[in-house]
């Protein structure tokens, strides 16, 4: 357990030891909370099962196993591309939420990473989108198809990047929605929809004389 940089509540640990609880869902939930949601429920279950569902032993096993070997990817939130601060959306309306993120580390992300819903309001049925592995310092936009709630009000949800092995990493990124009857999707959303449609056309058409001349000269 050397090098553990985590502050475990001794009373909490003692409480679970005394209870000898066999409720696996409770133990998984508490294990995940103690790790700051760094591991998904399946990963928590793996370490708990390995230690005969002893919470304290599982915490120790996790840090002993992960610390020497794992290089946690880095991710920084850059900006909201669509549905930024001050934009309002009508109830029950489909929209695309896009964030700009960056691999802020010195190593490329491993294959199979994804962006996952982790808390708050979900805004529809999508809870995960695959993300391509970014090179060091590379910036990319990540989009999720969502739907606004049926009632007016302020809503918020949280999403995080996650590796294929279930390790969460990087900044928590937020969706903050103002749902208003008669609300309008902002200009950024409309432009994003237009660009997506334009960029998915099978053949690009040159829209200006300058671009056509440039293409012909090449």
UniProtKB/TrEMBL annotation:
GO cellular component, one term: phagophore assembly site
Gene: ILRUN
Biological processes annotated in GO: innate immune response; macroautophagy
Keyword Cytoplasm annotated: yes
Name of the protein this chain belongs to: Protein ILRUN
Limits of the Nbr1 FW domain: 82-179
Subcellular location per the Swiss-Prot or TrEMBL entry: Cytoplasm; Nucleus
Gene Ontology molecular functions: ubiquitin binding
Organism for this UniProt entry: Aotus nancymaae
Gene3D superfamilies assigned: DNA helicase RuvA subunit, C-terminal domain, Immunoglobulins
Chief location: cytoplasm
Nucleus is among the record's keywords: yes
Coiled coil region boundaries: none
Keywords assigned by UniProt, alphabetized: Cytoplasm, Immunity, Innate immunity, Nucleus
Assembly notes: Interacts with IRF3; the interaction inhibits IRF3 binding to its DNA consensus sequence.
